[in-house]
Amino acid sequence: MTEETTADRHRRVAATFTERVRGTTDWDVPAPVEGWTARDVVDHLTTWFPGFLAGSGVTLPAGPTAQDDPVGAWEHQTAVVQALLDDPASAGQAIENPHIGAMTVAGAADMIYISDVFMHTWDLARATGQDDRLDPEVCAAMVEGMEPMEDLMRGSGQYGPRVPVPDDADAQTRLLGFIGRDPDWKP
């Protein structure tokens, strides 16, 4: 059996998010991130990663904005990121970032972007009344990998305070609580 590549992982995680995007009928409903709507979830994902890459010298082709066309914006983003990761030359391009250091485009996508898409899948699904179940193995691995970096992560301002969950909570509930989401949040 072959090991999953970053391009494979992006394809899989983005496909699930794409289903939730296409299933959204009201882009103005509140989302679990305070002050955000469903549209804002897509806007976040389609703006920060291109901006991050641009700061490292990698420019993604511009597409529609989430404010004008959230489905088109997401589908464009997914296609251009997938093309970047499917091409060994661009995926292997070295980049430098003052916050995370030197790595490849694929390494950065794997470490920070794909996991963000995975976590925000819950936000969009919960906001729009869709299936919000996440892969429990991925959830468990993420919590295990993030817990040793909790102070650094919280200090970044990208994560809210941990939400307490029961000691015997499942992996998804533990992940949601860790990243500052109320697992019982409802719109």
Share in helix: 55-70%
Overall pLDDT level: 94
By secondary-structure content and strand pairing, the structural class works out as mainly alpha
Q: Counting H and I runs of at least 4 residues, what is the number of helices?
A: 8
- N-to-C SSE series? HHHHEEHHHH
Q: Major β-sheet, in short?
A: 2 strands, antiparallel
Question: Segments where pLDDT lies below 50 for 5+ residues?
Answer: none
Shape: globular
The gyration radius over C-alpha positions equals: 16 Å
Features:
187 residues, mainly alpha, two-stranded antiparallel sheet, 8 helices, 2 strands, 4% strand, globular
Provide an overview of this structure:
The chain is mainly α and about 190 residues long. The protein is built from eight helices and two strands; from the N terminus they run H-H-H-H-E-E-H-H-H-H. It has helices at about 5-20, 40-55, 70-85, 90, 105-130, 135-145, 150-155, 170-180, and strands at about 95, 100-105. A two-stranded antiparallel sheet has the order 1-2. Strand 1 and strand 2 form a beta hairpin. It starts with 5 loop residues before the first helix and ends in a 9-residue tail after the last helix. The model has no long low-confidence stretch (mean pLDDT about 95).
Short description:
This protein has 187 residues and is mostly helical. Helices cover 56% and strands 4% of the residues. Helix 1 runs antiparallel to helix 3 (70-86), helix 2 (38-54) packs antiparallel against helix 5 and helix 6 crosses helix 8 (171-178).
